[in-house]
Every structure is written in structure tokens, then in C-alpha cells.
Amino acid sequence: MSALVASSSSSARARAVASRKAALSTRRQIRRPVAARAAASGASDASVSRVDASAASLLPPPTPSTASLVATVAARPATKAPAVASDDVSPFMAFCRANWGYFAALQTIALIGAANNGILAKKRRLEIAEINAKLRAMMQKYEEQQDACDPDGPASRKLSEGKRKLKEDDLDGAVQAFNEAALLVERGDDASALSVAKGVATALIRKGDLAAAIAVLEAKDVVDAAVRDGDGAVYGMLGDCYTDRGEFATAGKYYDKCLSMD
């Protein structure tokens, strides 16, 4: 009886040992594929990390964000503009800057004066052009004027003497001869008072005494004789005298009178 019990217990232990061995074998078989998969997964992760590192080296370096850049710029101290050294300004420039108002006023006055001078010059140029036109119109008539006197009278001889001395540039002798002719005319020896007056005026003009020549030609008896005889040479000579004196307006009036006479 005891032997039967002992054999049954030993067989039970044998079956328990066999079942444990089978369980251990099954666990080992299950763990091997898991370990293999883990090893394969680790190898692939390592290769991926190596690829990521190679790609990162090709990328541009990281840049700071906009907020960081603004904060960096705002934190920098403000740069000051370089101050201009006072030694670079000359005393003349400093004086001009301090008195620029006076310089502006002077420049304005200069501009006004230049404009006024330009207007006067234009007016004078127009007057001269008008006088030249009148002179060209009366030139032929002025040259053909003949002295009306008696060729046999003493006054005529004095007139001829005065003209001859004018041609010889003996101006003092010409004036004396014309004055003597004027005395003869006043005595009634000759009626050519107008010719005498023109001769005296011509001598005075050539001497440069324009005022005396104008006084002779503007005498009432001379003007009346010129109007009576229709002799425009007197007005032409007066126009020449005033032109030489620069009084172009008065000269133009006398030239107009000369042209209006036949």
C-alpha cells in the first residue's frame, strides 16, 4: 500500500517537472522574436538619426526671431550725430549768417537797380534808333541846302572866308569872319543873316561849344528867318547839338521840324 502511494507521488512530481520545462521552453521561444524586433528597431533609429544630422548640416543657420531682433535693437544705445566743429566755420561765414537780413535787403536793392538800368538803357536805345532814322531821312536834304546870299556883297565875302577857314580848321578865324559878316548884315549891307548865323553856329560846334551854338541857332530872328525861307538846316543843326549833349528827346523834336519843312 505504501509502495503504491510512493510511486504515484513520484509520478506526479515527474509530470509537474515536465510541465514546467515545457512552459520555460515556450517563454523562450516567445522572447526571441521580440528581442530581434527590438534590435532591428534600434538599428533603424540609429540610421535615421545619422541621416537627420547630415540633413541638418545643409540647412542655413538658425536666425533669431523678430521679437528677439527688435529687443536687441531697442537695447542698443542711440548713436549721436557727429557735432560740427566750430573751427570749420570761417569768420566771414559767421558774419553772413548773423547778418543775412541785411544781405537780402542789399541784394533786393541791387536787383531793382539792375532792372531800372535795363529799362533806361532800352529807352535810350529806342530814342537813338529813332534819331538815326530821322537823320537818314534828312541827310540828302541837309547836304543840298545852299546859303542864300548876294555873291557880290561884303557879307558874302566874309561868309566865304569863314567857310574857307572852317575847312582849314582855323576855328577862331572862322568865328571872327562870321561875326564880321553878321555886323555887315546888321548894317544892311547884306540880307543873309540866316547864313551868317549858321556859319557861326558851325564854327562853335566844331570848337565843342555846344551851348553857344544852341544860343545862336535858337535866337528869335534866326528861327523866324529859317521859317520864312523854309530852311530846315537850322533845326537839323539844333538836333545835332542836342544829340551830342545826350538830350535825345529834344533832338528828336528838332529833327521832326526839319523833316516837316520843304
Automatic annotation (TrEMBL):
It comes from the Eukaryota. Residues 144-163 are annotated as: Disordered. It comes from Micromonas pusilla (strain CCMP1545) (Picoplanktonic green alga). GO terms for biological process: chlorophyll biosynthetic process. InterPro entries: FLU, TPR-like_helical_dom_sf, TPR_rpt. This is Predicted protein.
